[in-house]
Amino acid sequence: MTETAEQPEGRGRTLEKGTSPAGNGTSGQRRAPLGDPATRGRTTIADGVVEKIAGLAARDVEGVHALGSGISRGFGAVRDRVPGGRSVTRGVRAEVGEVQAALDLDIVVDYGVSIVAVAHGVRENVIAAVERMTGLEVIEVNIAVGDVKLPEDTDDDDQEQRVQ
Questions:
Q1: 41: how many CB neighbours lie within 10 A of its CB?
Q2: Contact predicate 126/105, CB 8 Å
Q3: How open is the CA angle 56-62-66, to the nearest 5 degrees?
Q4: Residue 49: which of 133, 143, 125 has the closest Cα?
């Protein structure tokens, strides 16, 4: 989880009764301007938030069949069958600092696509989405291609359930 330090001073400060936030002891009088509202407080972005953004952005790239390694996809297939159990962060790990983030993605690509082109597209899409939505600088996006989805392979998602 990250905490972006937007106001290092005044953290944990409490106001005494009858004082203004400016601390000049006046009450009911015109307050001194406090400056830019964007600097009054702290914004915290959890690792999981960045992971969700990155996971959704990666899935939008053509040629990405799935995210996650074989083992995590197996467990994920079971979890996906439970209502509300679908995980958009499977195969995504984020390390978030105060102003920067680094991401690791495990992906499965469709057979016949250029892995280099898919990885490039994933990297561009993830960086753009995370930086736009969080304001964090993405310093790296590491992509591990763990499998290729062959046309004759069947997914658990594609099979019809016996019991409904």
A1: 11
A2: yes
A3: 55
A4: 133
Six-digit token string for 94: 């984020």
Token pair listed for 10? 């005044």
Backbone phi and psi for residue 138, each to the nearest 5 degrees, phi listed first: -85, 115
Neighbours of 143 (CB within 10 A): 20
The type of residue at 71 is I
Taking the model in full, what pTM does it have? 0.66
Query: C-alpha distances in angstroms, 62 versus 17, 52, 79, 164?
Result: 59, 18, 25, 31
Estimate to the nearest angstrom the gap between the alpha carbon of 76 and the chain centroid. Answer: 18
* Alpha carbon distance 44, 28 (integer Å): 33
Q: What letter would DSSP give residue 32?
A: P
Q: 110-158, pLDDT tens digit by residue?
A: 999 999 999 999 999 999 999 999 999 999 999 999 999 998 866 555 4
What is the bridge-based pairing of β-strands 92-96 and 100-110? antiparallel
Task: Classify the phi-psi angles of 63: left when phi > 0, otherwise alpha if psi is within -120 to 50, otherwise beta.
Answer: left
Q: Tens digit of pLDDT for each residue in 74-117?
A: 444 444 455 555 478 999 999 999 999 999 999 999 999 999 99
